[in-house]
């Protein structure tokens, strides 16, 4: 990936909530190497047709870009992939089941849902605090979860200074 970072674009959606609690989807296309945002736009309803138009505007056929990474959301239809291929981009989709491609959060409890439905909160869901309950033997230090612990050395280990 590092060898081709200059030629790779990535795109995705995220949502934001306005002051009037309106849900807006933000579409972003960025260059992987420089992390520079090439294009962004907002919509209330992301559709495949709207996404295709945004990608047309974001990728005007620049020959330095050869790959585009996106996930498997319904907004990225096969027609979009065909359009991107026709302008010379190779489409790379994220894995269906991420498995080892994403980092693992050791402080998450696998049996608890991360989000809970809550109609009183913007977006209709809130973070479940019990999803982060960790047994005392898995906790790291007393100054937060990122506190470094002394290394455990095997018997007979001698530190040479």
How would you sum up this structure, described in words?
- This protein has 161 residues and is α/β, with parallel strands linked by helices.
- The chain folds into two domains: 95 residues, Nucleotidyltransferase, domain 5, CATH 3.30.420.10; 31 residues, no CATH class.
- Helices cover 12% and strands 25% of the residues.
- A five-stranded mixed sheet has the order 3-2-1-4-5, with helices on one face. Strands 6-7 form a two-stranded antiparallel sheet.
- Strand 6 and strand 7 form a beta hairpin.
- Helix 1 runs parallel beside helix 2.
- The longest helix has 11 residues.
Summary keywords:
alpha/beta, 7 strands, Nucleotidyltransferase, domain 5, 25% strand, two-stranded antiparallel sheet
In short:
With 161 residues, the chain is α/β, with parallel strands linked by helices. It contains two helices and seven strands, in the order E-E-E-H-E-H-E-E-E.
Which helices and strands appear, and what pairs or packs with what?
Elements: E1 8-17, E2 23-31, E3 37-43, H1 48-58, E4 67-70, H2 78-86, E5 90-93, E6 115-117, E7 125-127
Parallel strand pairs: 1-4, 4-5
Antiparallel strand pairs: 1-2, 2-3, 6-7
Helix pairs in contact: 1-2
